[in-house]
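Let us walk through a complete example step by step. Step one is to write down the protein sequence. Step two is to encode the small molecule, zinc ion, as a SMILES string so that its atoms and bonds are unambiguous. Step three, shown after the inputs, is the structure prediction itself.
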Amino acid sequence: MNAFTCDVCGQLLFFDNSSCLQCGSVLGFETATMRLLALTPDGEVLRPSDGGTASYRHCGNRLAARCNWLVPADDPSALCGSCRLTTVRPNDSEADAMAAFADAESAKRRLIYQLGDLGLPISGLDEDPVNGVAFEFLSSRGRDVTTGHENGVITLDLSESDDAHREFVRLQLGEAYRTVLGHLRHEIGHYYWPILVEGQGRTERFRQLFGDERVPYQAELERHYAAGPSSDWAMTHVSQYATMHPWEDWAETFAHYLHIRSGIQSADSFGLRVDDPSVAAGHKAGSDTSHLSIGPLIDAWLALTIAMNAMSRSIGEGDLYPFVLPPRVVEKLDFVHGLL
Ligand SMILES: [Zn+2]
Ligand SMILES: [Zn+2]
Ligand SMILES: [Zn+2]
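Step three: the predicted structure of the complex.
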């Protein structure tokens, strides 16, 4: 994620900010330019404080989803480009679910921002019934909701926004990492599989790296929950869940790729670098990435994460980045990198 600065006073701003803490300017995220604009009210509309002539409205989900994105003033939609992708949301009267909905939308804006930044813009299922996407955010309290992806519809159980619940599930499943943004990055990976892999004629290479996705899903799911992953899973997969089925391996790897790209972007925007290449080399378990196009990115990332983990431990927390990237996983990440 990039850091931003206030057009009026130069103050450092963050992606979620809706006003500048220094000069009080109203802020809004403009999707066409991917900038956080300082705005001046002008009658019914908002205009850029830097003198631009464009005019905007706040997204209609400004309160319900704490959305700070803008809608062009002449756009008939009440909602911004991110919020309008959500087709199912809790009832306004469900206070807990609405708080969780706002958290989920906040994570989703990070996802949509990154997809645009990587040249992977998406449209809604209403605009594009074949390749569009829709998000359904619902709480599983009192009803059956399963997080997943099917035919362009991404469902998120809003209970995942509840920190205590998510930590309980994380421990039950023995996971190193579980976040709402991670869920969304995983599910969007499923959505992109036919577009990026099949659509670019890369299925053969996919099967060499991830396995044959035609193995029956239900049987693999039952095997996974009955027997668990093999003892050496960490040599071949980025997570235990990735061992379940080639599709899950793909989605976990795709999500991890997005984590890395976002983390690297954040580091770059704050001028963070760990220059000593031996730091990364010592933690690659003999992995030589020099023949891969993702090599420099992985080297920079590993060096950064080792430093981040050391910082996290020095304030008494656990590892901020609880993953290792063995050569087989790096090869899969390189495949994703090549597709993009
Ligand atoms: Zn300011
Ligand atoms: Zn919005
Ligand atoms: Zn999945």
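Step four is interpretation. The CA atoms of residues 34 and 117 lie 8 Å apart.
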